Amino acid sequence: MTSDLIDPDLIDPDLIDIAALAKLKDMIGGDTKDLAELVDDFVAGFPQQIELMHKQATDQEWGSLRITSHSSKSNARDMGAASLSALCAELELQCKSGTPVEPTRQIFEIEKAGLAAIDALKDLDLENV
Amino acid sequence: MGVRSRLLIAFFGISGLSVVIAGAALYSFGFVGQVLDRVTQTRVPAVLKTIEISRQAERIVAAAPALLAADTTEERSLVTDRIAAEMQVLNGILVSLSEQDDGFEAAVRLQPVVQELGSNLVELDETVSFRLRASARGQQLLAQLSETDQAVQAVLSPGTMVLNAKFARLSRQLEDADVTSEDHDAILSALTELVSSALPLQTAQFEAGRINDMLVFSALSNEIDEIEALAFPLRRSHQNLVGLVEQLQPRFRDRLAPKAEIFSALMAGPDSLPITRVSELERLADGRALLARNTVLSEELTAIVNDLVTQAETDITASSAEAREARSIGSAVILSITALSLVSAGMIIWLYVNGNLLARITALSDSMISISGGNLHAALPEATGRDEIAKMAAALRVFRDTAIEVEESNLREISEARERLSAALESISDGIVLYDSEDRMILCNQTYRDLLGPGLAAHAVPGVQFEDFMREVAAKDRAIDDDIGTGGDGEARIAQILLNRRTPGRELLEKWPRGKWIKFTETKTQAGGTVGVLSDVTELIEAKEQAEAASEAKSTFLASMSHEIRTPLNGIVGMSTLLGGTKLTHEQRDFATTINEAAETLLTIINDILDFSKVEAGALALENVPVDLIVTIESTTDMLATKASDKGIEFVFRIGPDLPPAIYGDSIRLKQILLNLLNNAIKFTDAGEVVLNADQVSDGDAARIRLEVRDTGIGIPENRMDRLFKSFSQVDTSTTRRFGGTGLGLVITKRLVELMGGEISVSSRVGKGTTFTIDLPFTPAERPSTPGMDEMLAAVRGRKVLVVDDNQTNLKILGERLRGWDIHPELCDHPQTALEILRTISVDVVISDFKMPEMTGLDMALKLKEQSGDQGPPVILYSSVSLLDHDTRAKFEAAGLTAHLMKPARTTQMLAALVKAIDPDALPADQSAMGLASSWAPAGTVLDVLLVDDNAINRKVALKILRRLNIDPMIVDNAAAAIAACEARSFGVVFMDIEMPEMDGVTATAVLRERLEPVRQPYIVALTANAMTQDRESYLRSGMDDYLSKPIDIDALTQCLDRASEFHRARASAGAPP
Q: Given an 8 Å threshold on Cβ–Cβ distance, is B964 in contact with A41?
């Protein structure tokens, strides 16, 4: 680990719930490399998820948007990205009830929260999680 | 006499004169040619030969001094040979000259000189030869002289040296001051005695040296006089030497006397040094004289040649004068006869052609022009005489009389036709106007005038120019525009009209003043005229605008309504599905199923309508992103495989070798097109096969993708084909009743294809089947690489595979696919034949269809095991049916099948199954990422675990956690694959994600519960991030056994697995097989 990495204790719990991330690490066997692999997958896959959400919203495919936001919520929970997970859950619920109120704005907020979480995760000292 | 005979006589007369002219010209040219030949072929070559002789002689004369200067015999031979060769050439030229015309005389003059030159050269050669011999002898004598001189000096020198030493010693004693007088006298006496004894010796030495010097001088001198002058001194010195030798002591005398004799021989006599040298110098002088004579001879030759050249020049000048004279005479003769010919021709033309023929023909021509110009009553020339012109005049008269009769008849018919045409034109509801080829109006009907209005109608009169008339129209328009305040640019309008006029055949629609819509069509006639048709389409246009507005409103309404209806319908579908999963009475389940099916149907219809209205309203925008064609096709066929299997029909697809792997486009809409066509094909086919063929075709310059969906269904009658692509239209109403559907699918498909820039076509035979063909333009894109693919391809490359299938289409497609992987396929359409083949040849793998006549693929695999034991090749079962009951399952394991694939298998599934059979180590580690997981089913235990999740991260998390528990699950990424996997093998536990696209986990569970026998039912665990209690309960109600929330808790997972084990133990103890 290099000194550039962020100490987990300094991370805003609304951004990344370190306890949740630590639980994930514990579940998969405590290997930092395995955790880093999952974090990398999350970082790499997030832009495609956002792109897919925008497309589904444009096509008014609320059923598909519900599944995508559900999937994103699940990944965000794994990573301890609490705010992101909450925003995804809200969109999922609205899709389930019918038509979301402001899907485009909501997806932008999800994107913003997701990018913040990714920034935090990328620099996080996973060894000490 | 006729015109032809007269003209023939004139022709022969003029031709005769021309022949005379040609004769004179030929004679003149011939004479001049002879003179030139004489000069160029006889005189000039002879002169050139003489010049050549002169030059050759000069070359020889120039080479001769080198012969005289030769110092050795070899040198002399070389020069002699060269001169002999040159002489031979010279003699050759002389002979050649003597053989030429005009050359003999010159050769006679040159021959004596050349002959003398030759003799001189022979003589020179002999002289040089003698000189060289004399020179060589002189060298030998000089050597003898030198030897003799050295011998003489060798005898005399020691004696003189001793005497000199004694003389020096005595001289020193005499000069000594202490010497006594007695001694002094004694010394003087000794000195006197010494001098008297030494003098002859020293003198002899001097004379011998002198003789040697003079002989050497005579041997080297170039002057004969000098050599002769030395004879006397030599003789005197020799006599002195002989005399002195006689005086010397015997020891000197005996040795010197023979040497003196040798000196004598070298001095005089024929072989003496002086005589030899004189002979050499005399030969040298002779040679120089011969060279001088040669030079004189060469000059004589040059003089003779100059004389000959001068003579030749004189002759050539004379010949030229002769030729000029002959040319002058010839020219005068030709000019005279030509003048005579011209005069004769002029007279013939003037007197006969102009005076007789032309005058009559001109008269005849004038009459013809008048008649052709319409003047049938023009005067005709009299048909006098009996020649051809007279006959033409008579014929013209007959023709004119006939034409007058025809004209009268035509005028009557034209008049009648005009009346009929006028009546017809007036009866037409459109305005008609006809212009001639010069754009002058011929006629127009009343409707035309009415459409123009009273102001312009007055100008629409026959004869008016089109452009002038249009200016009137423009002026009128401008007045109206001014009136109504719209303004207008008249010149621009006229320019546009005239431009349009140049491209006839166009249909123009214009809004005329006062709101009239006029359609104007112009057509060119064969005669270059123009027919214009004006139609008042104001009512049609208004109706069209109203219809379009109504259609747009309808589309907007439909889009809105469809969306509003779809939302609650989704609820009905979902809830009825959930309801179906609860405990219901038979009647209640029947109701729930009906509700579900009706809602599904309604949802399909609404979706179709929504798509249709989007297309109609122009609101459908296509994406343009990279599309993996093979994945798109395979995922589409995956979705329909079960449906085809349920109907018991073969469902196969073929990916052509040239199909680009990826293109730019809209994968969702492409899939929609394929789904529509394949759904229809399966829907309307009860037996046989449905084949999707995807390939690239070239049509001229552009390559296109061709997607072909062929079925063996009910087909479409010829007279119903036109309804296929029309909205809300099926082949007939009974079709709708029997097969359902809105009739919008094909319309949407067609519109989507057109939006993509492609074309769709259909061919069909009733009772035989239908083929839909789609051609799409494309831009290739880069296909993402599939990890592990290269390794798998390497593992199967070059292997031999036996394919057994009774369906020829399947055989053909599978064979092509295997060849594409560099596999050698053996194709066989009968299982018994396949068993026989396997007795004789060895293959790496057998791929067998399941359902075949007489024997199933499974039975064939069992027989193969009996036949070959464990040595037999691995067998992959490739079936269009997915039902494997317990017995079949037992057979499956007994036969030791390597894999079971559902038709149509994905490319990667088929490849992975082959790799598993041939080289399992080459299989990629992450098979789920390749969509391979459902492709094979190794025999498993009761607690084999299947993990189903569409989310890659979730799959990875679950895999890592399960591996901590030493569980290596099979992983799939969609519900359809999960169903296929569970049908293919038994799983102890299925961890089923709930929220998945295309089919969710609840629905998949319902399918599994319905399809699998109780003994094969897995323990299904809902795996979802929906953490609410009511969710959990709803999953359990829908047929799931357990629930695990995400993120997964390892303790909860362990407990869940414990419950699963308990479940299976309980079922086993109840009597069911594990």
A: no
